[in-house]
DNA sequence: CTATAGACCTGACGGC
DNA sequence: TGCCGTCAGGTCTATA
């Protein structure tokens, strides 16, 4: 499902379409997607901004009204000028004055929160890697407090918000760090490499339009391209792009984890 | 506090 | 063709 780069691309695409435009009508096909608030309270309101915090999408509307969304495994927002070719698995439709915003979600794990004058739906979301306060020193402090395997630590949204299962494996490969290494045993040079890898991998993935597996679609209905550049994720048994040794797959915290035993120590 | 398994869902794929 | 098990980009909750 969407991780930081995919969510960032969705926000960028939607910003051009929805900001400054009014929601005329909302159609809810699957009510349990709405986790809190009154969905109809957004009707007649204008979107004033859209941005991202970790993997959450934050839609800002007039009158201090916020709509938040988390896409979980299979959610996405699609933009259509009209519904002549309606996609499947549409759970919520937002009719704007200039087109239609669709919330699509196959497995229906995602959610939408409508919040008026209140706090966001998350509690204790970790630092976003693109926040200027995300520094090597800060990362060292975060990881120094955990003894769990570093792969699980960087997946923990309470520490860093945005990395998911694909990019966690990719980042550790780029940093040359073994996923099972205890988080608090990392030395300063490794933390620095890890910080650098997080920024490089995420930035590159964002520019590539994110990663597309199965039928994930960006808001323009298209796929990302980063799957072509993955170095370890879902490449078990295939040769490491650096040393040629077959990529290993293990299960860590019930999540598939991929790495090269030679390049990651 | 940690660590683990299960739950929430739908669909694609491989094996028999 | 069909049935069954496994797996999937995430996160929350219950249990030991």
Verbal overview:
With 265 residues, this protein is α+β, with helices and mostly antiparallel strands. The protein has five helices and eleven strands; from the N terminus they run αβββββββββααααββ. The protein has a five-stranded mixed sheet, with helices on one face. A hairpin with a 2-residue loop joins strand 3 (47-53) and strand 4. The structure holds a DNA duplex (16 and 16 nucleotides).
Neighbour order of strands in the largest sheet: 2-9-5-4-3
Q: Work out the helix count.
A: 5
- What is the end-to-end distance? 28 Å
Structural class: alpha+beta
Helix content: 10-25%
Q: Based on Cα principal axes, name the global outline.
A: globular
Topology:
Elements (H helix, E strand, L loop, with lengths): L3 H15 L4 E6 L5 E3 L10 E7 L2 E6 L3 E6 L4 E6 L9 E7 L2 E7 L5 E6 L19 H9 L5 H6 L9 H11 L12 H20 L40 E5 L2 E5 L6
Parallel strand pairs: 2-9
Antiparallel strand pairs: 1-7, 3-4, 4-5, 5-9, 6-8, 7-8, 10-11
Helix pairs in contact: 1-5, 2-5, 4-5
This protein binds a DNA duplex (16 and 16 nucleotides) through helix 4.
In a few lines, what is going on in this structure?
Helix content is 23%, strand content 24%. It is of the alpha+beta class. The strands form 3 sheets. Strands 2-9-5-4-3 form a 5-stranded mixed beta sheet, with helices on one face.
